[in-house]
Amino acid sequence: MAELLDDSAITAALADLPGWEREGNAIVRTAKLPSFAAAITVVDRVAEIAETRDHHPDIDIRWRTLTFRCSTHSEGGITEKDTALAASISEQIDAAGT
User: Fold this and answer.
1) Residue 97 has what pLDDT?
2) CB count, 10 Å around CB of 5?
3) Measured distance CA(72)–CA(50) in Å, rounded
4) 3-state secondary structure the chain
5) Per-residue pLDDT tens for 28-77?
6) Cβ atoms within 10 A of the Cβ of 65, count?
Protein backbone atom coordinates (compact mmCIF):
# COMPACT_ATOMS: atom_id res chain seq x y z
CA MET A 1 0.00 0.00 0.00
CA ALA A 2 1.18 3.47 -0.83
CA GLU A 3 1.11 6.26 1.71
CA LEU A 4 -0.70 9.52 0.95
CA LEU A 5 1.51 12.56 0.51
CA ASP A 6 0.77 15.59 2.67
CA ASP A 7 0.26 19.03 1.15
CA SER A 8 3.89 20.11 1.56
CA ALA A 9 5.19 16.91 -0.08
CA ILE A 10 2.81 17.40 -3.00
CA THR A 11 3.91 21.02 -3.41
CA ALA A 12 7.55 19.96 -3.35
CA ALA A 13 6.94 17.20 -5.90
CA LEU A 14 5.10 19.56 -8.23
CA ALA A 15 8.08 21.93 -8.17
CA ASP A 16 9.99 19.17 -9.99
CA LEU A 17 7.13 18.39 -12.39
CA PRO A 18 6.73 21.30 -14.82
CA GLY A 19 3.27 21.49 -16.33
CA TRP A 20 1.62 19.45 -13.57
CA GLU A 21 -0.94 20.98 -11.22
CA ARG A 22 -2.91 19.73 -8.30
CA GLU A 23 -6.64 19.34 -8.79
CA GLY A 24 -8.18 18.03 -5.59
CA ASN A 25 -6.94 14.50 -4.95
CA ALA A 26 -5.05 14.24 -8.23
CA ILE A 27 -2.22 15.80 -10.18
CA VAL A 28 -3.01 16.77 -13.76
CA ARG A 29 -1.13 17.74 -16.91
CA THR A 30 -2.49 18.73 -20.29
CA ALA A 31 -0.21 18.67 -23.31
CA LYS A 32 -0.76 19.56 -26.95
CA LEU A 33 1.18 17.23 -29.23
CA PRO A 34 2.28 18.01 -32.80
CA SER A 35 -0.28 15.62 -34.33
CA PHE A 36 -2.94 13.07 -33.48
CA ALA A 37 -0.51 10.26 -34.32
CA ALA A 38 2.10 11.72 -31.96
CA ALA A 39 -0.52 11.95 -29.21
CA ILE A 40 -1.52 8.32 -29.65
CA THR A 41 2.14 7.28 -29.60
CA VAL A 42 2.53 9.01 -26.24
CA VAL A 43 -0.60 7.27 -24.94
CA ASP A 44 0.76 3.90 -26.11
CA ARG A 45 4.09 4.48 -24.36
CA VAL A 46 2.40 5.64 -21.16
CA ALA A 47 0.16 2.56 -21.29
CA GLU A 48 3.24 0.31 -21.39
CA ILE A 49 4.80 2.12 -18.43
CA ALA A 50 1.54 2.00 -16.47
CA GLU A 51 1.14 -1.73 -17.08
CA THR A 52 4.65 -2.51 -15.82
CA ARG A 53 3.99 -0.47 -12.67
CA ASP A 54 0.39 -1.65 -12.24
CA HIS A 55 -0.52 2.01 -11.73
CA HIS A 56 -2.66 3.68 -14.37
CA PRO A 57 -3.48 7.33 -15.07
CA ASP A 58 -6.82 8.58 -16.32
CA ILE A 59 -6.27 9.79 -19.88
CA ASP A 60 -8.45 12.13 -21.92
CA ILE A 61 -7.71 12.31 -25.66
CA ARG A 62 -9.02 15.27 -27.66
CA TRP A 63 -7.48 15.16 -31.14
CA ARG A 64 -3.85 16.08 -30.36
CA THR A 65 -4.44 17.30 -26.81
CA LEU A 66 -3.91 14.84 -23.97
CA THR A 67 -4.84 15.28 -20.33
CA PHE A 68 -3.30 12.92 -17.79
CA ARG A 69 -4.72 12.65 -14.27
CA CYS A 70 -2.77 10.70 -11.64
CA SER A 71 -4.27 9.63 -8.33
CA THR A 72 -3.98 6.51 -6.24
CA HIS A 73 -7.66 5.62 -6.08
CA SER A 74 -7.17 2.83 -3.55
CA GLU A 75 -5.64 5.36 -1.13
CA GLY A 76 -7.99 8.22 -1.97
CA GLY A 77 -5.36 10.71 -3.04
CA ILE A 78 -1.85 11.44 -4.23
CA THR A 79 1.06 9.12 -3.43
CA GLU A 80 4.65 8.72 -4.60
CA LYS A 81 3.30 6.32 -7.22
CA ASP A 82 1.55 9.28 -8.82
CA THR A 83 4.50 11.64 -8.78
CA ALA A 84 6.79 8.94 -10.20
CA LEU A 85 4.28 8.13 -12.95
CA ALA A 86 3.87 11.85 -13.68
CA ALA A 87 7.63 12.17 -14.19
CA SER A 88 7.58 9.26 -16.64
CA ILE A 89 4.60 10.74 -18.49
CA SER A 90 6.47 14.04 -18.79
CA GLU A 91 9.45 12.22 -20.29
CA GLN A 92 7.19 10.72 -22.96
CA ILE A 93 5.54 14.07 -23.71
CA ASP A 94 8.94 15.78 -23.96
CA ALA A 95 10.27 13.03 -26.25
CA ALA A 96 7.32 13.61 -28.60
CA GLY A 97 8.45 17.17 -29.15
CA THR A 98 5.80 19.34 -27.60
Assistant:
1) 80
2) 21
3) 12
4) CCCECCHHHHHHHHHCCCCCEEECCEEEEEEECCCHHHHHHHHHHHHHHHHHHCCCCEEEEECCEEEEEECECCCCECEHHHHHHHHHHHHHHHHCCC
5) 999 999 999 999 999 999 999 999 999 999 999 999 999 999 999 999 99
6) 13
